[in-house]
Structure formats: C-alpha cells, structure tokens
Amino acid sequence: MKRLFFIVLTFITQVFAQPETLNLMPVPQKLYVNGTAFKLTEKFTTGVINNKSLKLIKGLNRFLTRLSGRTGFFLEHPFVKTGAAPDSVDFYIRYAKVTNPKLFVDESYKLSIDSNKIILDAKTDIGALRGIETLLQLLDADSTGYFFTGVEITDKPRFPWRGLMIDVCRHFMPLDVILRNIDAMAAVKLNVLHLHLSEDQGFRIECKTFPKLHQLGSDGFYFTQEDIKKIINYASERGIRVVPEFDIPGHATSWLVAYPEFASMSGPYKLQRDWGIFDPVFDPTNEKTYEFFDAFFAEMTKLFPDEYFHIGGDENNGKQWSLNPEIRKFMQENKIENTEELQAYFNSKIVKILNKYGKKMVGWDEILHPGIPKNIVIQSWRGKEGLINAAKNGYNVILSNGYYIDLIQPASFHYLNDPIPADIDLSDDEKKLILGGEATMWSEFVSPETIDSRIWPRTAAIAERLWSPRIINDVDDMYRRLETVGFRLEELGITHIKNYGMMLRRLTNNRDILPLKTLVDVLEPVKFYNRNKLRKQTQQSPLTRVVDAARPDAAAARNFRRMITTYLNTDDELIETKIKNQLKLWVKNHKAVVKLAATSPVLSEILPQSENLKNVAGIGLTALRYLDKKVLPDKEWLRKAETVLTGARKPVAQTELMIIDGIGNLIQKLSNQGN
Ligand code: ACM
To answer: Is the pTM of this model over 0.90?
Structure first.
C-alpha cells in the first residue's frame, strides 16, 4: 500500500513539480523512479561484458568493496566476473569502447534497476564509471534490509570540463591529499584535476632539465616525477584528466630564486613567504627566456599526457617591466604600447612552443589579447565579463569566477552560479564555446589537515552545477542531498568531518570538546580576502586555530537560521520550543568555554566570540518572550539589542558568528509589530 502511494506520488512529482532527486548528486539528466527496488544480499553478483578495460574492472572491484563496507556484507562474489553472460549476474555492465580521459570523451550512461536486475550501459568505460557512482548513491536501507532504489536513468554531463584546481604551492599538498581528493572528485563526476604547480611561494615538481627549480624553489616539498605519474595514473583510472599549470610570466618568484638570469631585474631572489601580488617576473625581451621555456616544456609536456597545458598568466603587475630601461627600450623599438601588450608578446611566443609539443594553451583571463590563436582556453576568474568576452571573440572558456572555494562562501552561492544563465547575452554558437568550469582551491590558508573541509562538501554542489540541467536549482534540495553526499565522501578517505573533532581535541588539550564544538559549529572563517587583512599570515603561520577548525557554510548555523524563518512564517510552537532550547544552550555554553580556555591558552582569542554567542542568544530568548506575549518591546531594550547584534558581527580571531541574521529577523519582526 505504501509502495503504491509512493508510485502515485512519484508520478505526480515527475509530471508536475521538481524532478525527483533522491540522494543523487549530481542529479541525472533523466530520471524515472519506477517504484521497484533491487534487494541487496550477500549473494549479489556483478559481471562486465569483457576484460578489456582494466580501469573498469578496478572501478567495479572498488565498487564492491564500498558496497560491502557500507552494508557489512560478506559478499560471496566480491570480485567482478569478466565476460559474464548478462543473465548470469545481478548487476551487468556493458560498454562499447575503452577510452582515456580527454576533453569531450563520451561520459554518458544508462542505468536501469528493477527488482530482478541492474543493467548499466555506456558508450565508454568512463561512462560506465560515472554510472557506478550513481548506483552507489542509490543504495538505501529500510527495516527489511539494503536495496537499490528502482530507476531508469539516462545521463550525460551538461559540460565536458568539470574541474577542481588545487594550489599545491602556497602550502604543499602531499600525494595522499591529492589521491583522496581524486576519489572524491570521481564520486561527484568531476573530470579535471588542475594542479597549480608553480608560484611565488614554491616550485612543486621535480624538473630534470633544470633541477635547481625544485631544489631551490621548494624547501624540499615537491612532487617527484614518479609522484606525478602516480597522480596521472590514479586520476586516469577514475576517468579524470590532469592539467598542469606553470604560472608565468608573473607569480614566478620561485623560478627566479633558481634562475635569476631570466628575471626582469637583477637578483638574488628569495622565496616569498606571505600572500599577495609580487613584482618578480620573467624577462620577455630575452631570447634566452624562451630557450629556457622550450627546454622546460619539452620535459613537462612529455610527463603530462593531457592535450591542455596551463600557463597561468594572471596578476602580472608589470612593475619590473616598467622599471627596467632595457625592457622599456625593447617596447619602444617594437611598438609595444604597455605591459599588457608585452605580456601578449610573451604569450604569443609561449603558445608556439606549446603547440610545437602538441599542447593547447590554457590561461587565466589575462591571456586573452587580440591576435592570440583561437585554439587556447581562457579560464575566467575576475568576473563574468571575461567569460562573455572570450566566447564573443571565439575562444573556448571555462568559468571559475563564482567557484572560488577559498573565499568561504556558502554552497548555495556556488550552486546558483551558472556558466550559462538563461539570460546570458550570447548566441547559441558562442554558448557552445563555454566548456564548463573549475572550483579553485587556493592554498594560502589551508594545510593537508584542513584542505578537505574547504573543498568538501561545497564542491559537490559545483560538480552538480556543471553536470546537471540548469533547471536543477532548488537550494533546499541541494542542501538536503549535500548532507548525505558529503558524509559518504568519508568512505573515500576525505577528512572534512573527522578532522573537525581531531582539531577541537587538540585545541582543548583532549578535554570534553562539546562546549567548544557548540561554539565552533556556528562559526565560519571570515570570507573573501579578509583573513589576511585582519591578521597577516605567512606560509609558516599555524593553521590549527579555531578559525581553521571552523568550516565554511556552517550547517548548524544554517539550520538554525532556517528554523527561525520557518517559525516566523508559521508560528509553529514545536519549532519555537526547539529554538528556545537551542538559545538556552548557547547562553549556558559560554561558562564552559571560559573554563576550557583557562587551561588551553590557545582558546583565549575566541572568548569574545563565545561571549557574543551568549549575548546574541540571550537577545533571541527575550525577543521570543516579547513575541509570545505579543507586547511591544521596550524601546531602550530594542536599541541595546541592535547595538549588541552589530557588535557581534565584527569578526573575532578571524571568525564570524553565523546566527546573527536569524536573531536579527526576530528583532525585525518585533520592530514591525511596533509600527
Ligand atoms: C587568480 O586567482 N589569480 C587566478
């Protein structure tokens, strides 16, 4: 009976409302929930059409490990059967072609589940890998046991370039960080890992031709070429491309520490230890610079198989070029009007070298300049105009503006940042030039311990934006699914949840973390570029403080704000009671945090924030009392309350208290009553 109701409801949902989304992220292009379920038992068998794709066989065996890991099943057939007859297994996988990850590879698949059978059909083995992740997201359970929800899915990505950039330079991220993040990327169908490998603060890859690069430019923290091969292979097995970035001609201090002869001003140079835009830049007027890059790219283009090769190109302030009389003379003689044109000259030489080695050039906004060949890709980061401008001028482009996950904005913001919004001013042909986008994880303020919590789970929302249809844009439904998809990433070794407790234990010196957790649950690190403005940090500054434990898009605070909204819209008593209990807990919590700080001096900086939480919660309780009694608030109280809320909005120890808007809405309602 329940099942029938479910079918009818599903049917109505399909026809009239938001598409059914289950716990799928990204949501497939076409999904029909057929009302059946495939019951999972230890007898479950898996078979693939042939043994030609080792990456699919490995992917299926990982699937079976994850399945038994979630269910506790001692599977009787824990390895995939190759060349099995379709009827001889429960889960049958068919694909037409073995492929390597590359741009425009066919990632489509069809997944059909009913009570008897699961069939996955794909054009390529990579498409099959995408379908396997969907199947894992369909695993569910009820009192009768584990089952896969019955569906018919026809799926393919909206965009072919769906990336995550990791900056391994500001803070080096060792191999294990990269590998576990590749697994997480695969789980949400991202397909490009962009490694930002050179910066003012570090040169992070072994170079055999110019070994001083990694020897002098890295403090010893760099990927060996064997590491890089492992990364590429690991990614490739998951259908993920690896695009390297060597940022030139600016952001180049680490290169010039090793080879100052290619700089625009005489050295010596030393590694930059803090954050910002710095002057050191390659000399574009020196032919030896290009001989150096020719030899460098000869080596690196062999190491990285992807057709695309990123040369950065961002934020060259041009100062050294303007200050050097020789360079100024070169510009005059060659009728180069300004430093942007000089960079275009540099790029025009670099692109030829890359083309010679069979690579297509990618670069940030700044490389777009009249005359640059059309086979490059622009990565738009400064604003939407960059994307529109690139497409209007006939260039392929990927969007990163709006996907800067280092800026600590909520998942909802990134989620609604569509590369091709309905009202975009582009022709259909121009729209086709937009290949997708990339989340960017700049690493000024992350360590191997905290990076996962900055990438995940928000990047799953970006992954959906780049895979699913534009009309899949219900923020509440996204957050509902993000909760499940986010915690599932732990099975792949992602540390965004477990490291939180670990960091709180360190901060409390292994005492009861609950009071601190209660506070930090509703804090977020300050947003945008404010962290460094509030307190200058360097590469060696600790990344273990409360601000580092605090997570972007704090779920507890978001849920509280949502409760307040619901209460204000419905006057629901049950919700009001919940809010009151929460507020009372926050009022009481301060005393316990003070006690913790007495023997954990590292916590003293956060006490004013704990006090803010207490005061703001107290105001919330009083506001609710006024609302309950339907009496107008005392004017003096109202004035004071607003002063406290305003004061509490000021960051403390680089954190923001995220419940103030909720309490502010209660006050607003009170004020409105008075009008
Ligand atoms: C950039 O964020 N400078 C590309």
So the answer is: yes
